[in-house]
């Protein structure tokens, strides 16, 4: 087993960052836009508590027993 294997993608990224080190900071800035966020635990708790249970199949509802016609 080759423990020193490095994928082509990893090699490409290492070479790219070696040639253009400013990309590392740009990558961190872009990541911070979507991923590196603080979570408001209290708001998350209220959001989960306010969740309303959903019925099994939301696009169709079976008629109530009262609405069925008798033969």
Please give a quick description of this structure.
With 71 residues, this protein is mostly helical. It has three helices and no strands.
Outline type? elongated
Largest sheet: none
Q: Element order, helices and strands?
A: HHH
On the 0 to 100 scale, the average pLDDT is 84
Report the span from N to C terminus: 75 Å
List segments where confidence is low: pLDDT < 50 over at least 5 consecutive residues.
none
Kindly estimate the percentage of residues that lie in beta strands according to DSSP.
under 5%
* Extended strand count: 0
Q: Work out the helix count.
A: 3
Helical residues, percent: 40-55%
Structural class: mainly alpha
CA gyration radius, whole angstroms: 27 Å
Describe this protein's structure:
The structure is a single chain. The protein has a domain at 8-54. The mean pLDDT is 84. With 71 residues, it is mainly alpha-helical. The chain is 48% helix and 0% strand. The chain has helices at 8-19, 22-34, 41-49. The radius of gyration is 27 Å and the shape is elongated.
Features:
71 residues, mainly alpha, 3 helices, 0% strand, elongated
